[in-house]
Known about the structure:
Helix content is 51%, strand content 15%. By secondary structure, the protein is α/β, with parallel strands linked by helices. The strands form three sheets. It has a five-stranded mixed sheet with strand order 1-5-4-3-2. Strands 11-12-10-13-14 form a five-stranded mixed sheet.
Amino acid sequence: MPATLRVLLDDGSFPVRSLTGLDDDALDLPLSWVHSSDLLDPTPWLESGNLLLTNGAQFSDDPDAETVAAYCRRLRAHGVVGVGFATDIIHARVPAAVVRAGEAAGLPIVEIAGRAPFIGIIRFVADILAAERAARFSWLLDAQRAVARAAVRDDGLREILHTLSRLLGAWVDLYDAVGGRLALPGLRSAPDDVEGEVGREVRRLLERRTAASLVIPSANGALLQTIGQSSRLRGVLAVGGPEPLDPAGRDLVATVVALASIALEQQRNLQTSMRGVRAGVVDMLVAGQEDTARRVAASSLGGLPAAPHLVGVVRDAAAVPGLLDELDLVSSDPQRLFSAERGDDVIVLLAEGAGDALAALAERRGLAVGTARHGAGDALASTLRHAEQAARDAAPGHLRAYAELAGRGLVEALRERGGSVLARTVLQPLEALPVEERERLRASARAWLEANGAWDPAARGLGIHRHTLRARMAHLEQLLQLDLSSFAARAELWAALEFADPE
């Protein structure tokens, strides 16, 4: 229990009573120390949170109201919690002007009667503070043991951070070496209203390129602490809550940072090796050696997602700073999410229902991601090609499913991929003709193609003789330099007419 005015007033060991109205906030403000002084301005010797004791030697029985008001305002502005005014020594009672000034300034005035010794009150508060420090120290030792136990679990780093969040009742965020916030499932993150400020300060801290810590007052005293050595920072740990951390809380964060630094360094070599194994597993899957790949994954990695599952491709992801580290953190369960490098891309296998994690990653990091559904018995090489095509079609920051891409059809895909530009190029020679003749040739070509190259039905549809239609198509062949006796040329002409912008 912290030392407060409420504790002092309720204890009964001293003849003290409040002369000013006290609300709960004033009663429960923690006392940092008790100091005695009869100076008119004792603030140079006081700290915020102090309780000031005085015999009132600086005041007459009827002091100047403005002098007393300035005295109370000065103490309140300095953060003094209250004034204990002794009676029966110099003053028989506390001057009314002092009580009024205290009320006006919001400074509690407490009467200390019966010539109660100041040293007793000081010792009383000191004992509470000592007990509180001892309790916090004991809590810190227990908390450090808890995070040490968490550090030796299978997923040590995540367990350390989860334990820290639980012990402090705080949100915890881990940022990589370039200031990107890592997604850690189940970990309480910073609220949206402070995350932006925290992220900016994290990047500023990393720009210094030296080990350092920082408190952000505007984010309720959130604490930022770099991880790693000055020559090689590995990231930043951010911790915050409704109130700034006390010394024991800051010490626990320092312990976690030290353990996290060790864990990250130990994991680096292991992760490099395991990434090679994961890449080999994907190569075997692509080569059709699924049984062998699954045996290797089960014995060395913990398994793979069972079919049916999603195959994801993150384009040009291998060079994205911190991305592989983040995937290592979120891939703690390879049967749910498995990732591996393949060339410049990262391949991700996701159990059904885990796709949201990949979509969130794409949005947060501005990545182009494609996915395709892989069923039991399907060839991974084929599914991977589908996912790669979807990734090429995806915009940065978005996930594109191959099913969505295929559902649009080939024609729509060509249209979106610049088909109209190529179509206008193919039909460019027609632009030299008069408008009427140009449209006549276009209409004749459409009718002939829709009739599958049959002359009589197309001519009847146009209301002309078949020889007239043959002449028109011959003219069109000459202008466009196409041999319409081949299917390929007919398909190109149909596509050009289909994709060309309307006149």
